[in-house]
Design goal:
With 306 residues, the chain is of the alpha/beta class. Helix content is 42%, strand content 21%. It is elongated, with a radius of gyration of 23 Å.
Amino acid sequence: MDAEFQNRQSVLKSSILGDLPEEELAELARTVETRLALPKELIYSEGDPPDAFYIVCSGRVRIFVRRKNGLEREFAVRTEGEHFGEVSLLTGEHRTVNVESLAETRLLVFSREQFDRLLRDFPELSRKFVREMRNWLLEDQKIIEKEADVLLSSSRASCFDFILVLGISFLLALTFNFLNPRGIPLIPPQPEPVPAISAPMAMREYEQKKAVLVDAMPNNFYQLEHIKGALNLPPAQFDLMYMANFSQSENKDRDIIVYGSTVSGPYDLQTANKLILRGYRNVRVLAGGLRAWKANGYPVEKKGSR
C-alpha cells in the first residue's frame, strides 16, 4: 500500500485530526514521519524534551509513571486512531510520563513545528485538546476517590497505604500543573486585596473596549445569565478555561474586571487572584457584581437569547 495513502487513512481515523480540510489532510499525509515500534519499546520517557505529537496507526501503547521504588501506575492505553504527547507540547514542560508499546505499533510522528502550525492555523484544535484533558483529569479524580475509599474503609490500612493515597493525590496535582506553566504552589501565598471598580466606571471602560470582563461563576450560572461579551473563568476550571480564552502572549497590563460571587463562594476574588498570579497587573473586581450591573440597566445575555 502506498505510504502516503496509508498515512492519509490514519489521519482520517484520528479522533483529533480527522475533521481537517482535505487539502490539509493531503499535506499531512505527504510530510508526516512514521515510526515502527517493537513490543515493549519505549517511545519516550519521563524527563525527555517535548519534541513530537503521536497518532497510533496500528498496535497499542500504554502511558505510565514509574516511581523510584520500581512501582508503576498506568494512566491509559492508546489504540488505533488515538493520540498522545500533546500535553508537554502545550505546556512546554519536559515529559512527565513514559509511553511504551504493548505490541508492534505503527505511529505517525508530528514534529513540534508541525504541531504548532496546526494549532495556529486551526484554533478549534486547541479547544479540542483542552476538552480532552479536562475529561482525563475528571477520570483521574474518580480513580483517586475510589482508591481512597477502599483504603479508608479497610481496618488493616497501614501507614504505607495512607502515604500511597497522598502520593496519588500529589500526582493528580502535578497533572493539573500540566495546564499551568507557572505551576500551582502547594501552600499558596496570602493574596493582596484586589481593588474594586464601580458599575458605572466599569461600563465606561466596557463601552470604550478598554477592559476584558470575566465572569467567575460556575458555567451553569454563566449560561443562565452573564454580562454581554464576558468570558467565563470559574476558579474550579481556571487552568482549562484560561488556556481556551487567553493567549500566552496576552498583554499583562490589559485591564481585567472580574465579577461573580455568592454568600458561600467569593468566586470573583478567587479568579482575580489566580489572574494576578498569572502576571496580570490591572485586575479589579466589580463592586456589587452582576446585580449592580443589571440595576443600572447595562447589557446582559441570558440563556436562549441571541
